[in-house]
């Protein structure tokens, strides 16, 4: 009122604010959308609600790159659950992530000119991206030489999806997305997956802890990558007991998978952490006590269930070893037959029986993977492809190692430990078509030492 009176006393007059007529579409489009939505809900409620929810979620992920990236990371371990909704769900999420990145990138670089590290160079990140470039070239060359029809296209598409995820994650973690957030979401999703797997096991649905990703060996691989990250994140957390609980749950689930590869990888991870002085003997002792306590509780609370699981594992153990040796021999023969570019993506599932010295005994399940990441890679994309893939893993490890040595960044150290463990476990399982190795390489590149311009 005082200001208004002063204006009147001075003989000044306020001009009415200028208003612009709004476009007709501002009113008409929302009305049409609302009308169509209401008609759809009335005509077919359930599909309309699902479609509407999918559109809202998809739009949100499309306009927020960080959300799209975290959705891909969080959902990877729940692949089999998502397949119940739609078998293409994981591919759709990867496509949405790519589209979201393109939309965000169209507005400029993710790390602006005012960023304190704008223009900084990172040899570790450059090495990871260089290895990816070589791998892409080899994949395309191998596919051109041996297309392998729809099966080859499907496998190539899976390779392409993870290449895209790695590249987008590396770029996003240079800008708005903190590596610590990515690692935290991955640990959280793996903890939830561990709980789901153990609940299904205790209810008798599975004889080994598998849960949301079906194959217990694959679940063990996911959890193997998550445990070092959880321990690394614990150091800077306010509520450390939350991370302790997550590690305990994931460790229990790894033991429940009865995956020898995951257990061996866990041992290697502990050894690397000790050698690089990232953990103390006291911490290793605490981890061992947690594992022994878990085993003791399982034996005391569920003795019959554990006994059945161990008996069934023992029955098939010899057959599994025989099958894997045969599959490794087949992959080796395929590599020797086409050592440079292999037989093309998807070829192992199509041709490995033609290279077996003998057929495995009493096989009642599909043997479409080599149960060895490196041999299957060399069989399909040759020694050049294997060298590029190993180069990627090595570059990711060295990048993470550089971050640990330069800044004593515990997360960078944890990524290196996780990569060492998973690289060993990958000798016994086929994991190039799952997220952990790619995520760890992306985290390593993002956490690498940076040199100011």
Describe this structure in words.
- The protein is mainly alpha-helical.
- It has a domain of 309 residues.
- It is 73% helix and 0% strand.
- The chain is built from 18 helices and no strands.
- Helix 9 crosses helix 11.
- It is globular and about 55 Å long.
- It starts with a helix and ends in a 7-residue tail after the last helix.
- 42% of the residues are buried.
- The N terminus is likely disordered.
Uncertain segments are 1-27
Number of helices: 18
Main beta-sheet annotation:
none
Kindly name the structural category: mainly alpha
Order of helices and strands: HHHHHHHHHHHHHHHHHH
The amount of helix comes to over 70%
Number of strands: 0
From the spread of the alpha carbons, the general shape counts as globular
Please summarize what this structure is.
The protein contains 18 helices and no strands. It has 453 residues and is mainly α.
Secondary structure topology:
Layout: H1 2-9, H2 24-43, H3 45-63, H4 65-75, H5 79-85, H6 89-105, H7 123-145, H8 149-172, H9 179-202, H10 216-234, H11 240-257, H12 260-275, H13 281-301, H14 303-337, H15 347-351, H16 373-407, H17 410-425, H18 435-446
Helix pairs in contact: 2-3, 3-4, 3-6, 4-6, 4-8, 4-9, 6-8, 7-8, 7-16, 7-18, 8-18, 9-10, 9-11, 10-11, 10-12, 10-17, 10-18, 11-13, 12-17, 13-14, 14-16, 16-17, 16-18, 17-18
């Amino acid at each position: 009122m005082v200001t208004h009176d002063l204006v009147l006393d001075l003989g000044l007059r306020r001009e009415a604010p200028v208003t612009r007529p709004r476009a007709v579409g501002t009113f008409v489009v929302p009305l049409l959308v609302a009308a169509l939505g209401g008609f759809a809900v009335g005509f077919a409620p359930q599909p309309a609600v699902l479609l509407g929810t999918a559109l809202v979620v998809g739009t949100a992920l499309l306009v927020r790159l960080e959300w799209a990236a975290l959705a891909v990371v969080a959902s990877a371990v729940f692949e089999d659950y998502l397949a119940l909704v739609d078998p293409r769900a994981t591919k759709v999420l990867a496509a949405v992530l790519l589209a979201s990145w393109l939309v965000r990138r169209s507005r400029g670089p993710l790390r602006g000119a005012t960023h304190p590290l704008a223009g900084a160079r990172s040899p570790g990140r450059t090495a990871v991206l260089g290895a990816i470039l070589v791998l892409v070239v080899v994949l395309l060359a191998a596919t051109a030489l041996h297309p392998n029809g729809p099966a080859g296209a499907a496998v190539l598409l899976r390779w392409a999806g993870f290449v895209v995820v790695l590249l987008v994650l590396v770029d996003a973690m240079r800008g708005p997305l903190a590596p610590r957030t990515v690692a935290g979401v991955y640990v959280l999703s793996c903890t939830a997956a561990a709980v789901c797997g153990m609940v299904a096991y205790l209810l008798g649905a599975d004889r080994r802890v598998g849960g949301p990703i079906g194959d217990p060996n694959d679940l063990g691989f996911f959890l193997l990558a998550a445990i070092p990250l959880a321990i690394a994140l614990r150091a800077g957390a306010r509520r450390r007991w939350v991370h302790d609980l997550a590690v305990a749950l994931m460790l229990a689930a790894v033991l429940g998978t009865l995956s020898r590869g995951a257990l061996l990888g866990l041992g290697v991870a502990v050894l690397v952490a000790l050698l690089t002085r990232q953990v103390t003997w006291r911490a290793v002792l605490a981890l061992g006590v947690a594992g022994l306590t878990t085993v003791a509780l399982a034996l005391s609370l569920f003795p019959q269930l554990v006994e059945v699981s161990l008996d069934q594992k023992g029955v098939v153990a010899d057959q599994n070893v025989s099958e894997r040796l045969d599959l490794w021999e087949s992959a080796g023969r395929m590599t020797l037959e086409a050592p440079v570019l292999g037989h093309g993506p998807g070829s192992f599932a199509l041709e490995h029986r033609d290279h077996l010295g003998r057929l495995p005994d009493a096989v009642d399940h599909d043997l479409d993977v080599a149960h060895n990441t490196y041999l299957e890679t060399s069989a399909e994309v040759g020694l050049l492809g294997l060298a590029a893939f190993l180069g990627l893993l090595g570059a990711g490890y060295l990048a993470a190692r550089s971050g640990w040595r330069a800044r004593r960044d515990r997360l960078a150290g944890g990524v290196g430990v996780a990569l060492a463990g998973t690289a060993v476990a990958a000798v016994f399982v086929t994991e190039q078509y799952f997220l952990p190795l790619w995520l760890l390489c992306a985290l390593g590149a993002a956490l690498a030492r940076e040199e100011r311009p």
